Amino acid sequence: MKAKQTNFVCFKCKTASRGPWRREFAFKCSACQSDMEMLHFDTEIPRKKNTTGWKKLEKFFRDQQERLQKEQEERTREIERWKREREKK
Ligand SMILES: [Zn+2]
Fold it and tell me: Which domain range does residue 56 map to?
């Protein structure tokens, strides 16, 4: 089976690359050398001139990040609660 290609973007330069998804690996932007953000493989990447499209994409990405972080925090709290419950017994 072929490894799934996913999208990497640099919001600052509006550049995009496709590559295989790897947990410990970040694509570097060819223009500014910063780490690119990873997006779902079927995310539609707007054209470079499409500023509105890029703004929307960035907002979508930030919102998603925020949501994931909140979920993560919630899970951590849940585990802490569970540990405390267990210690009581
Ligand atoms: Zn860049």
Answer: 50-89
How would you write the pLDDT of the chain (89 residues) with one tens digit per residue?
566 788 999 999 999 998 887 777 778 999 999 999 999 888 999 999 999 999 999 999 999 999 999 999 999 999 999 999 999 87
CA of 22 to the centre of ligand 1 (A): 20
Gap from CA of 10 to ligand 1 centroid (Å): 5
pTM passes above 0.70: yes
Same domain flag for 36 and 1: yes
Identify residues whose C-beta is under 5 A from ligand 1, the ion: 10, 12-13, 29, 31-32
State the distance from the centre of ligand 1 to the C-alpha of 47, rounded, in angstroms: 15
The answer on 79 and 54 residing in a single domain is yes
Question: 7-10: which pairs have CB atoms within 8 A and are 24 or more residues apart?
Answer: 7/38, 7/39, 7/40, 7/41, 7/43, 7/45, 8/36, 8/37, 8/38, 8/39, 9/36, 9/37, 9/39, 9/45, 9/57, 10/34, 10/36, 10/37
